[in-house]
Specification:
Its EC number is 3.6.1.66. With 214 residues, this protein is of the alpha/beta class. The protein is built from five helices and six strands, in the order E-H-E-H-E-H-E-E-E-H-H.
């Protein structure tokens, strides 16, 4: 376990929604952060088959390119009835032929895949969001933190908050989707609070407890 002893880090991502969420989480701790997108780093090929492997690839690439610690996130939607898909390929399901991403299309793909399997009952639409954060240093040292939140895939999509598949994910115990929640409601956590709702907030809470607290 290595403590983070600098307030300057790189957010190893080119995903605007993900960058915004991570900045919202690290901001209260006084971090100065720039994203891999701002620094015009190339996106590394995510060749891993697990969230941990892909998070490590991204964090190490930014840490080595910048000479600073880098924090990455690899996350995805895991649907039980689809044998864990889209999983680590969550972003790939949104890719269009021109290289851009269309998450409305991706959500429709998930719904079609469920329909093709004959899944209609809510009890058979169990899913979870998974987030793995990786903090990497330029010397190659890494720390990994995994967060998960259980829920259900709903249809049609509801809400315009958040990003990605948020409008079709209803967390367990709630009547609203992530797409209907404000950032504060979705994270369910701020410094000093014990609870954390979103998968990313839960992973971040572990990061704080491991790398920030003395």
């Amino acid at each position: 376990m290595r403590k983070l002893d600098t307030k300057t880090i790189v957010v190893a991502s080119h995903n605007a929604g993900k960058i915004r969420e991570i900045e919202d989480l690290i901001g209260p701790f006084g971090f100065s952060a720039k994203s891999a997108a701002e620094l015009k780093f190339e996106e590394p090929d995510e060749t891993g088959t697990t969230f941990e492997e892909n998070a490590t690839i991204k964090a190490l690439a930014s840490a080595k390119a910048s000479g600073l610690p880098a924090l990455s996130d690899d996350s995805g939607l895991v649907v039980d009835a689809l044998d864990g898909a889209p999983g680590v390929y969550t972003a790939n399901w949104a890719e269009k032929e021109d290289g851009t991403r269309d998450f409305a299309m991706a959500m429709e793909k998930v719904e079609k895949a469920l329909a093709d399997k004959g899944v209609t009952d809510a009890k058979d639409r169990a899913a979870r969001f998974v987030s793995v954060l990786c903090l990497a240093w330029p010397d190659g040292h890494t720390e990994l933190f995994r967060g998960e939140v259980e829920g259900t895939v709903v249809w049609p999509p509801r809400g315009s908050q958040g990003f990605g598949y948020d409008p079709v994910f209803q967390p367990e115990g709630y009547e609203t989707t992530f797409g209907e929640m404000s950032a504060e409601e979705k994270h369910g956590w701020k410094p000093g609070d014990a609870a954390a709702l979103s998968h990313r907030a839960r992973a971040f809470k572990l990061f704080v407890e491991t790398c920030l607290k003395v």
